[in-house]
């Protein structure tokens, strides 16, 4: 018969193994390079956000996550221990009523009271965290509007003549609170940058609010976390936190119209684009004024394509145009049938959109 002491030792061993695994995960995340740890396409330490926060809106949330994880692990360990004890220290058949006659119900009463107190304390703690992250400590220095589409993100900056749009990238100055106005163009999505803030849904017909702030410059992954269709898993984006000077340079560059074409091939490519792509896409400074797909005025300044599906290179860009349904099945972007000459012309034009 297995003794209670051996059962307790087994439970402690399991808890120690779990703690060791979490420690090794943290060490792996700490030792990764910034590009490996924060790249959208990185496969290492996918849960690194559980161990590290990079902004004041995420810090209270990560503490809450740790607390709830510890409580859940303790509850599971205690229940497992009691279950093992019950399996190996069962009463004799003649003691079937001992639960009542020997006061065994006290354990039930005590457990119920402790569980109620613990759940009430958790609820109070969760509400206090929600209140703490509801508003930034100072007035936001920047306001952007993020609109979720199936399956990409539109980001609008500025007002009036200074207004411009980009896609699947959110650039912000570091150490500055940023107010994010969240909208949806079709179904319910959810905006989440785990290292910077919690989740907020985007709901058609409603404008929700979220604020984020990065403690230091860096690149942070964002993801839709509300199932929204076949390509939900490939609806990602990146947040680029930059120094104020770098952000100002990026902002000034993005406000400009598309550069002038410099070659005959690029001019032919522009005419092809305006004839076959302008119904959905915009390129400022051209006849392309579509609003149902990403603004491509400075498309080559972005690191990734198709909401994080592929790295943005001239070769991948033309491959995406011709084989969108192979790369991201179900996307609203159709495959474009191009001859080799047309593909070369269009590539030459798109190469100017930096």
Automatic annotation (TrEMBL):
Identify the Pfam families for this entry.
COX2, Cytochrom_C
Which topology term describes how it sits in the membrane? Multi-pass membrane protein
Q: What is its EC number?
A: 7.1.1.9
**GO biological process, any:** ATP synthesis coupled electron transport
Which Gene Ontology molecular function entries are recorded, alphabetically? copper ion binding; cytochrome-c oxidase activity; heme binding; oxidoreductase activity
The domain of life for this entry's organism is Bacteria
Q: What is its main location?
A: membrane
The reaction(s) catalysed by this protein are: 4 Fe(II)-[cytochrome c] + O2 + 8 H(+)(in) = 4 Fe(III)-[cytochrome c] + 2 H2O + 4 H(+)(out)
Q: Which residues form the signal peptide?
A: 1-29
Q: Which InterPro entries match?
A: CcO_II (IPR045187), CcO_II-like_C (IPR002429), Copper_CuA (IPR001505), Cupredoxin (IPR008972), CuRO_CcO_Caa3_II (IPR034236), Cyt_c-like_dom (IPR009056), Cyt_c_oxidase_su2 (IPR014222), Cyt_c_oxidase_su2_TM_sf (IPR036257)
Question: Where does the sequence pass through the membrane?
Answer: 61-86, 107-127
The keyword Transport belongs to this UniProt entry's keyword annotation: yes
Subcellular location per UniProt equals: Membrane; Periplasm
Coiled-coil ranges per UniProt:
none
Please state every residue range assigned to the domain named Cytochrome oxidase subunit II copper A binding: 139-253
Q: Name one GO cellular component term.
A: membrane
Domain Cytochrome c, first and last residues per copy: 264-354
Keywords, sorted A to Z: Copper, Electron transport, Heme, Iron, Membrane, Metal-binding, Respiratory chain, Signal, Translocase, Transmembrane, Transmembrane helix, Transport
The UniProt function text for this chain reads: Subunits I and II form the functional core of the enzyme complex. Electrons originating in cytochrome c are transferred via heme a and Cu(A) to the binuclear center formed by heme a3 and Cu(B).
Q: Which NCBIfam families match?
A: CoxB
Name the family the entry cites.
Belongs to the cytochrome c oxidase subunit 2 family.
Matches recorded under PANTHER family: CYTOCHROME C OXIDASE SUBUNIT 2 (PTHR22888:SF9), CYTOCHROME C OXIDASE, SUBUNIT II (PTHR22888)
Name of the protein in question? cytochrome-c oxidase
User: Species name for this entry?
Assistant: Caballeronia fortuita
Q: What is the lineage of its organism?
A: Bacteria, Pseudomonadati, Pseudomonadota, Betaproteobacteria, Burkholderiales
